[in-house]
Design brief:
The complex is a heterodimer of chains A (168) and B (492). Chain A is mainly alpha-helical. Chain A has 7 helices and no strands. The chains are: A mainly alpha (168), B mainly alpha (492).
């Protein structure tokens, strides 16, 4: 019986680590601490050129403030827990993945190919199955945007396998 | 006051009238589409404004602001989903009234009260902004520092969500502004050896990321959502009986909205909630609220539109944004090389009064377009998200790239989109990040310059009466949520 209680107690304390308030606070504090570490690597200005405070002082103060406020939020959440968020659907992860696909394609192949691929992935996985609409969203609309930016705003897009065809 | 005649200048400029017309239509479309709204739409259109002169650019943004704030009511009434956060209170009575077959009457009241609220707030702007700007002549570096701190604390205390989370978000925004070369000593901060970061992180990638891309991610979690749309035959002007019931509410809400708008916070959203609550409190039939009360619609709509002019007061007079959309407008002013503040009032009155006049015309335009075109604008909600958001992504990416022709900006936009999504998911508002980013340089610059003036003595801040007043007000603002919570607990 005692063992069962112990196990329950262990689960309770473990579940604390899986609460969103704990995870979010931990992420903010870890990132802020890393950034705080970096502030110690900033160059120091000699006193004669120093204007009021050192360049690192202000970001340091901000990061310490963020860490302190995050700790405060976390301790408040122990008393008033955050509402439980629903699990994220697959469509969210696919959209997120399409961002990664866009970054890779736009960097190594072509900026507009990246946009077209992202558009078709998002549109398809959000439920669009009609081919004409998929073509409209992934080819025709980006083409209109390209022509608009290129001709009216005079913008030059980064080189790529498709963009190079246009620029010759 | 001698500049008042300049208000009518936009009427005689065909270019400004065209910009106003398209800005109003665009604002209505953005307001109608849930998830977009004038803030995201303004952020999306910012890069395009670079092709315009500064006045046309700001007129375009303010027209989007005025019309977009009203446009949210169309969706709130017809599909029970606020097109903008500021229209959330309009759903409470607008949709029930539409369900009773009176969608036209509900939209008519929303249109009329929005216009009255909007025009009243522009009048407040015209008279109050120059006064505030005159007061700002007395401000030195320490006063501006204290004012910026006051702005951030106000945002934290009366903005949406938890005040501490708002403060964290505001501090994060200021932290982003420290990336790049230190503007006083040219020392690199948080650049991690990336050359593109030495110039700092631009406003556009952050604004578009936090608003448009994070909303796209939010929409990706809602693809199975079904809207029940109420049919609309035509918008009806309110009857004499409706005017008799609502005129006091409209006047009260216009005052509330203008006042709330002036405070640096999330203007329209807070204003509409307070306007609605006050309408209910003063109503002879409070039991009708939530069941299709015409007073409820008038109270919410007059207040949220009145906040537009109010929010422009600190934006133009002090350079402190009064709401999320005015933060975008302030970004527009900055990227066009216009620095808001008292000098702007002295040196470029035609520019300022052009904005005032344009806001008045935008209110009249959205009345006409809303009245005759609400049925058409309501059809825009039929555009499915699976087609709309990929197109918004294409515009966001190209718009962000266009400003500096930098692919790093596009990546930053996506990064801030993901950050914004998780912030919103866990109850952190993204608005303080933008305002923190805009005020960051002001906060740090004025603090450091003040310390130079004070020879490093921090206590000297307390010897400046105006700065001390702002610090005391900041403390009051910070303690306000605690008092509110204590009162709530005492009631329970």
């Amino acid at each position: 019986m005692n063992d069962v209680h112990k196990e329950k107690g262990t689960n309770k304390s473990l579940s604390l680590f899986f609460k969103s308030s704990f995870i979010v606070s931990a992420v903010i504090i870890v990132i802020s601490s890393i950034l705080l570490y970096f502030t110690f690597t900033f160059d120091i200005v000699p006193p004669i050129l120093n204007r009021g405070i050192q360049p690192a002082t202000f970001p340091k103060a901000l990061l310490i403030l963020i860490i302190a406020l995050t700790l405060l939020t976390y301790f408040i959440s122990l008393k008033n827990p955050w509402k439980n968020e629903k699990k994220l659907p697959n469509s969210f992860y696919i959209t997120l993945l399409s961002f990664v696909v866009f970054i890779i394609i736009s960097k190594f192949l072509d900026f507009f190919l990246g946009i077209a691929l992202l558009s078709i992935i998002v549109s398809y996985f959000w439920g669009e199955r009609r081919v004409t609409y998929l073509i409209m969203v992934s080819i025709i609309f980006p083409l209109i945007v390209f022509v608009f930016f290129e001709t009216i705003l005079g913008l030059r897009f980064p080189p790529g396998i498709i963009t190079n065809l246009y620029y010759g | 006051m001698e500049n008042l005649g300049l208000i009518f200048a936009p009427l005689f400029s065909y270019k400004l009238l065209i910009v106003l017309f398209f800005g109003t239509i665009f604002g209505l479309i953005l307001g109608v589409l849930p998830g977009l709204g004038p803030t995201t739409g303004g952020a999306l259109i910012l890069p395009f404004t670079m092709t315009l002169d500064p006045l046309s650019a700001i007129v375009l943004l303010t027209a989007i602001y005025c019309a977009g704030t009203y446009g949210g009511a169309i969706t709130a009434i017809l599909i029970n989903t606020p097109g903008t956060p500021a229209a959330a209170a309009t759903c409470l009575d607008g949709y029930p009234l539409a369900q009773k077959g009176e969608a036209g009457r509900a939209l008519g009241m929303a249109t009329v009260s929005s216009v009255i609220g909007g025009i009243a707030s522009v009048v407040v702007l015209i008279f109050f902004a120059p006064l505030l700007a005159n007061l700002a002549y007395e401000f030195g570096q320490p006063e501006y520092f204290a004012l910026a701190i006051f702005g951030l604390t106000m945002l934290a205390s009366i903005g949406e969500g938890s005040p501490i989370k708002n403060l964290i978000a505001g501090a994060f925004g200021i932290l982003i502004s420290t990336v790049g070369k230190d503007f006083m000593t040219s020392i690199d901060r948080f650049t991690f050896g990336i050359n593109e970061l030495t110039e700092g992180i631009g406003f556009i990638p952050v604004v578009v990321g936090l608003f448009a891309i994070s909303e796209m991610l939010t929409q990706s979690t809602l693809i199975n959502q079904i809207f029940n749309r109420v049919a609309l035959k035509a918008v009806k002007l309110p009857s004499i009986d409706d005017y008799k019931k609502t005129w006091k509410t409209i006047i009260r809400s216009s005052g509330i909205g203008s006042f709330i708008g002036v405070l640096p916070a999330e203007g329209g959203t807070v204003a509409s909630l307070i306007g609605y609550a006050e309408a209910k409190r003063w109503s002879k039939k409070p039991e009708d609220f939530g069941k299709g009360s015409i007073e409820g619609i008038a109270g919410a709509e007059a207040a949220n539109n009145a906040a537009t002019g109010g929010a422009m007061v600190p934006t133009l007079a002090l350079g402190i944004p009064g709401s999320a959309t005015t933060a975008v407008i302030l970004t527009g002013l900055i990227i066009h090389g216009v620095r808001p503040g008292p000098d702007l009032f002295r040196e470029q009155p035609e520019f300022l009064y052009g904005i005032f006049g344009s806001m008045l015309i935008a209110n009249i335009l959205f009345f006409v377009l809303g009245f005759f075109g609400a049925k058409i604008f309501a059809r825009i909600t039929l555009v499915p998200n699976k087609l709309l958001w990929p197109m918004i992504f294409a515009v966001s990416v190209c718009g962000t790239y266009s400003l500096n022709q930098s692919i790093i900006d596009v990546w930053l936009m996506l990064l801030f989109g993901v950050i914004g999504f998780f912030m919103r998911r866990y109850g952190f508002s993204v608005v303080p990040v933008i305002i923190g980013l805009i005020l960051g340089e002001l906060v740090e610059g004025t603090l450091r310059q003040s310390l130079v003036i004070f020879d490093g003595n921090w206590l000297m801040f307390l010897q400046r009466p105006i700065a001390l007043t702002f610090f005391v007000l900041s403390l009051i603002a910070l303690s306000f949520p605690l008092i509110k919570r204590k009162k709530k607990n005492d009631k329970v």
